[in-house]
Write a structure and sequence with these properties.
It contains two helices and seven strands, in the order E-E-E-H-H-E-E-E-E. By secondary structure, it is mainly beta.
Length: 165
């Protein structure tokens, strides 16, 4: 509620409407490539579709100015906890790892579908992949490290057109 103009067009969390909210109050500060973001941490039940974590710590942003114009006019309301614990601010366990440890998802796999159609819906599948969004087989590769979901590539092609070769 105190995020200001940069949050004006976004849905905001209101702890006053939650019966499962637990005050935490730890100051939260992070520096993204676009600038600083700050606020405080809270604990509450977080539900995504039919998956829930009963006591998830998360940041309530009170200053989102560092997220820039992309956030101010973007069609998203926040950042979802899919990071690795090694880069989590204040050592907070990211939502994804709480979903895994609680058994809410049975497989440590998630899939992201980005629609090619402007204005089309994308999808996040937790605990697996939605095979209706791709043809062929998935190729599993090792991660470079446990910070970002990064892996080594020598290059890739779309059809016969090489990219980053």
């Amino acid at each position: 509620n105190t995020c200001g103009l940069s949050c004006a067009l976004h849905t905001r969390y209101d702890s006053n409407t939650s019966s499962t909210y637990v005050a935490n109050g730890t100051a939260f500060n992070i520096l993204y490539g676009s600038g600083p973001v700050s606020g405080f941490e809270s604990d509450d039940k977080v539900t995504l579709g039919d998956l829930s974590v009963t006591s998830q710590t998360f940041a309530e942003i009170t200053n989102a100015s560092g997220l820039g114009a992309a956030f101010a006019v973007g069609h998203f309301d926040g950042i979802l906890g899919l990071a690795w614990p090694s880069i989590s601010v204040d050592g907070v366990t990211p939502l994804w790892f709480n979903l895994l440890s609680s058994g809410a998802v049975s497989s440590p796999v998630f899939g992201v579908f980005l629609n090619r159609t402007a204005g089309g819906q994308g999808a996040l599948t937790l605990g697996g992949v939605d095979q209706s969004h791709f043809d062929g087989e998935l190729a599993w590769v090792d991660l470079q490290n446990t910070t970002y979901w990064e892996f080594h590539m020598d290059g890739f092609k779309v059809g016969d057109a090489p990219f980053c070769a």
